[in-house]
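Tokens help. Our protein:
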Amino acid sequence: MTQLRALKLTLDNSEDLDTVDTDILATALPKLSFLTQLGITFEGSWTFQEPTLLKFFEAFQSMKNLTDLAIDLGGCRFSYYYYEAGSILESLQYVVGTSIQKLSLTLFQNFNNENLKELSTALKGLNLLQGLSLDLFSWYKFSKEAFAGFCSALARLILLTSLSLYFPSGMTDNKIVQNIASALMSLQNLMSLKLGLRFDNGAGDQQFQTLFTNLKCLKSLKYLEIQVADQKKITDTSLEALGESLKELNSLKSVSLDFSSTPHITDKGIEALCYGIQEASSSLVRLRLKFDKNENLCEDSMYKLGKALQALVSLYAVEFCFRRCFKIAGFQGLFKTMGGMKNLEEIKLSLPYSEENDREVCSLKKRKNDLVISFFKNKNWI
């Protein structure tokens, strides 16, 4: 057991786990001197106080071989969560200057501006980071000053090859997108980028144009995932900028784009995006597009998408969601293209229902074994 190199723990106090148990566990961790990867997930309803968390982080400091650390609080309910979030981020000082190369934090509920500042301070000391994943849900609204400081700290992590930022709430200021765009300019070694942004009031279209334009600087990028769902101000112009960047990212293997509930995107934007995908890396093997709840898209979008797919000779898996795009009456051209792609093995589709689509799916199933499809009709799945 002392030579264990990877450990993943789920601590659920609904199973009679209490503070004493966690204290014992924290004390035992440094004895695993060979451990390089550690993941801890807290579930249930926790009420423990700062000393318990400090013991964990003090343990991390003593684990000299630890390179990969993941802490997940997303599934738990703290009685004093504001205090706990602060103590977690303050306690990151105990791993500053250690050999940590990959850090993953999932926090939920009352993550506020002060917490964001504490996180920024901690990141400045983690100079060896190659992978960073932050999933920070908050009912609070981040100020532009706090977020600018966070992005400034992020830009200093020049060794990063993998970055995942998910902020499903708490965004109100347009300049937040611009700050992220500026930080990306310094992260030239990125091979994997995941961005999940949601704004309460909607960010300006110009800000997303800047963000998508800056992506072209990430020449080593292989995996790209962007989610800007419920973004009511984004337009075709932003997708045109994204399409232009995709044409210059020649190492891409996987692209996932979620623009659900973006009512101002039309066939023109889809055409620009498809052209970019068509000119992207010939090594692209996975493609996921989600444009749920858009009533501006018509058959022309599907024609352009089918044409783009024809150029992706290495494509292995696709997932398309157009389930509430009711103006798209037919997907025949798209079905025909996918049916003729030799390397395409995995297909997942969420589409509005029509008898014609149903017939096309039956035909496609005869040629592709691994096909998952769900139809949406009259606001219900069928």
Summary: The first strand starts at residue 6 and ends at 12. The longest helix spans residues 50-62. Residues 86 and 115 are 6 Å apart (CA to CA).
